[in-house]
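ingest -> validate -> predict -> emit
validate: passed (alphabet ok, no gaps, 141 aa)
predict: started
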Amino acid sequence: MIPKIIQGGNFSDHRGTISYVNDFSFKAIERFYIISNSDENPVRAWQGHKLDTKNFYCLSGAFKIHFVKIDNWENPSKDLAIETVTVSASESKIVHIPAGYANAIQSLEKDSKLISFSTLPLANVSDDDVRYDSDYWKIDG
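emit:
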């Protein structure tokens, strides 16, 4: 599987706005959490997942979601190509990152919030999580 964008939309009328991503399925989702990076450390990096699939949706503000396809879990190449997707609260889309990738989350605005839907049960996280130094792959900007 490869990373992809699951596009949604917004509907507005005199009552307000509804944001949706109707093509996203919750069948495999086991848990979710909300990420709010601090102003002092706007980048949360790098966390790899051998088994877990991540799905990110921006609740407020804006983020850059960076990800790399891991070639070797114990000693990945520092030359891996970094892919980046920007998400914002004004858009309605989910960034789907399958197992086998490491990601970094970069806040672009103060008080930004990102929800992450995960497919791996919490009991299995210790077998899955691989963390790398925050500067293992260099993020521009």
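The chain has one domain: 4-10+28-131.
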